[in-house]
């Protein structure tokens, strides 16, 4: 059956490519098309962006910017230390160290191609390789540190175009009973929430359990357990081991649920594409009405997800005045493609703001807790997830 395209999200920039005024003329764009692979059931992009254009020394996404994610990795680390004591841990995509910092540097290895973040964990004493994850790197780590008992990766495996190479390299570096644990946004949740904004350059694939098991199995691994997580708008934590290992009931439960949702069927994605188009029309209509009523609308969270939404829907500074974000590396710059100014929070979610579009809708509880004053004086959030509405 091969690859069948079902969605076109149009011309898109590098999702985390926040830029200065002077860099506008050299901004990079690509066409964001999404397809279903009838053989593996993988949802994947029709064109992959070169890794160096996204993950380099100017990378701006910091995993530790939300309390939700800091807490999430802290409790996972505690669980892993208890469940797999004395293990050697390798993390693929260690970012600013939000996960690995919970472990003793002595027994850990980190991999992070973005030099700015690799340097941060190196300075704390971690063995961080500032390279992309490849078989060559896995062989080098094997030589220098030996086999690894836990290979962990969060929001990174779905960033890598070549999954066969990725999984083969993992399999080659795992110790005999080692476990590969990785978490990424769940395709089931994307379909349930119409959260098409999970699709951007850094997410060449959106994973179902069905597709992942097909891909892992052809590389010597199989899924042994699946945990459904609420983070990042709904993610799955996948536990995989060598073929022949014991499999728990969560694997078949998740696959059965995904079959009910139709994640193994192209028609499901064709219906999703229609809903995405409707979501775009509704969001543009709502923001245009706000503008007509002279309301001040900003966005909350300069996320990569909002890059997809703003560029796909054609939403620029005429509809959204500015975006607030806590990340120092994004502040004072323009959002990719649509060039909405990014500012530090505190100054903008002030008394003059009527509505705030939630770019970081996945952190809604944390944000609501922080912004009680805005809510109490009648300020409203806007989201497109799962349908366009005021909150
Ligand atoms: P993410 O959804 O891709 O993790 O990105 C979340 C972005 O939102 C990140 O740039 C940090 C920012 N953010 C805020 O500005 N304020 C907040 O309260 C939270 C939770 C996140």
Task: Give your account of this protein's structure.
This protein has 391 residues and is α/β, with parallel strands linked by helices. It is built from 12 helices and 17 strands. The strands form 3 sheets. It has a 7-stranded mixed beta sheet, with helices on both faces. A 6-stranded mixed beta sheet has the order 14-13-12-15-16-17, covered by helices on one side. The protein has a 4-stranded antiparallel beta sheet with strand order 1-2-3-9. Helix 10 links the parallel strand 12 and strand 13 (323-324). It is globular. The protein binds thymidine-5'-phosphate. Thymidine-5'-phosphate binds next to helix 11.
**Bound ligands, named by name, code or SMILES:** thymidine-5'-phosphate
Stretches with pLDDT under 50, minimum 5 residues: none
Strands of the biggest beta sheet: in what spatial order? 6-5-4-7-8-11-10
Rg on CA atoms, Å: 21 Å
Give the N-terminus to C-terminus distance in angstroms: 42 Å
Helix percentage: 25-40%
Instruction: Label the overall shape.
Output: globular
Count, helices: 12
């Amino acid at each position: 059956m091969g690859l069948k395209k079902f969605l076109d999200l149009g011309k898109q920039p590098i999702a985390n490519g926040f830029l200065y005024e002077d860099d506008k003329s050299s901004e990079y764009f690509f066409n964001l098309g999404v397809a279903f692979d009838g053989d593996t059931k993988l949802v994947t992009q029709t064109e992959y962006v070169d890794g160096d254009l996204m993950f380099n020394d100017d990378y701006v996404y910091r995993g530790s910017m939300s309390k939700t994610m800091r807490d999430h990795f802290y409790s996972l680390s505690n669980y892993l230390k208890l469940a797999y004591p004395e293990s050697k841990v390798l993390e693929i995509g260690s970012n600013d160290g939000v996960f690995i910092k919970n472990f003793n540097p002595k027994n850990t290895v980190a991999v992070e191609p973005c030099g700015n973040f690799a340097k941060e964990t190196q300075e704390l004493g971690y063995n961080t390789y500032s390279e992309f994850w490849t078989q060559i790197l896995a062989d080098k780590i094997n030589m220098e540190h030996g086999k690894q008992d836990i290979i962990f990766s969060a929001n990174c495996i779905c960033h890598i175009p070549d999954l066969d190479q990725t999984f083969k390299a993992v399999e080659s570096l795992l110790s005999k009973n080692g476990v590969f644990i990785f978490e990424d946004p769940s395709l089931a949740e994307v379909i349930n929430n119409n959260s098409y904004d999970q699709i951007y350059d850094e997410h060449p694939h959106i994973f179902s359990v069905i597709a992942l098991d097909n891909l892992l199995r052809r590389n010597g691994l199989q899924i042994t357990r699946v945990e459904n997580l609420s983070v990042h708008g709904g993610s799955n934590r996948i536990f995989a081991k060598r073929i022949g290992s014991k499999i728990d009931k969560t694997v078949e439960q998740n696959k059965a649920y995904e079959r009910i949702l139709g994640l193994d069927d192209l028609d499901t994605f064709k219906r999703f594409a229609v809903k995405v188009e409707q979501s775009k029309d509704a969001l543009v209509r709502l923001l245009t009405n706000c503008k007509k009523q002279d309301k001040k609308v900003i966005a909350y969270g300069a996320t990569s997800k909002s890059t997809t939404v703003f560029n796909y829907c054609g939403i620029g500074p005429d509809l959204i005045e500015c975006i607030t974000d806590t990340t120092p590396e994004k502040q004072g710059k323009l959002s990719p493609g649509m060039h909405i100014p990014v500012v530090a929070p505190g100054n903008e979610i002030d008394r003059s703001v009527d509505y705030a579009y939630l770019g970081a809708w996945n952190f809604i509880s944390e944000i609501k807790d922080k912004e009680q004053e805005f809510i109490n004086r009648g300020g409203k959030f806007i989201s497109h997830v799962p349908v366009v509405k005021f909150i």
